[in-house]
Design goal:
single chain, 6 helices, alpha/beta
């Protein structure tokens, strides 16, 4: 189902269509993001702010729809970013939006705990996806060297953590910020 998460009506339609097609929704993974150019705050643009925070708005209203539609015992998993841990120059807008996702995760876990719905965030490090395909090779090599495991993450590395948090084995894990970044050293 295609939807633009920056438009609340699209978010609501996405959930309505998914519920209609599937019958119910048990697990929600909010994995929306855009990596803007790395610019100092003094050079940043309103357009970049609106783009990044538009996706944060979409994540918030996705969590709202999930809170309304998930059955007791459901799972909400938000994807954040290790930029919330590294204090990188040029990442103020992106990192601040992702730290907001982390706080929304913790708050919603308290709200939905009485319904046995867990809400967690997974915090990946730099992961080999299309999102980083334009990064210079030297930057990617440097990032890999800054991890304990000496490599960038692979999508499966993050998917496995998300699958665990979505599973019944993680029923006692909620309100947590789970870092999966290969031991990134800031």
């Amino acid at each position: 189902i295609q939807a633009d998460l920056t438009h609340i009506d699209d978010v609501r339609r996405l959930y309505a269509e998914a519920q209609q097609k599937l019958g119910h929704i048990d697990i929600v993974v909010n994995n929306a993001g855009v990596l803007p150019p790395s610019l100092p705050v003094a050079q940043e643009t309103e357009k970049t702010w609106d783009t990044v925070y538009g996706l944060l708005k979409g994540t918030y209203f996705s969590m709202q729809e999930a809170a309304r539609r998930l059955p007791d015992g459901g799972r909400i998993i938000n994807i954040s970013s290790s930029t919330t841990r590294t204090w990188s120059a040029g990442s103020a807008i992106y990192a601040s939006a992702k730290i907001a996702v982390e706080q929304l995760t913790r708050s919603l876990s308290r709200e939905l705990g009485p319904r046995n719905i867990t809400v967690n965030a997974v915090i990946p490090g730099l992961t080999e996806t299309d999102m980083i395909s334009d990064m210079p090779p030297a930057m990617l090599e440097g990032a890999a060297k800054n991890t304990t495991l000496g490599r960038l993450g692979k999508p499966q590395d993050i998917a496995d953590v998300v699958a665990f948090v979505a599973s019944d084995e993680a029923r006692w894990v909620t309100g947590q910020l789970i870092v999966a970044n290969g031991g990134l050293n800031p």
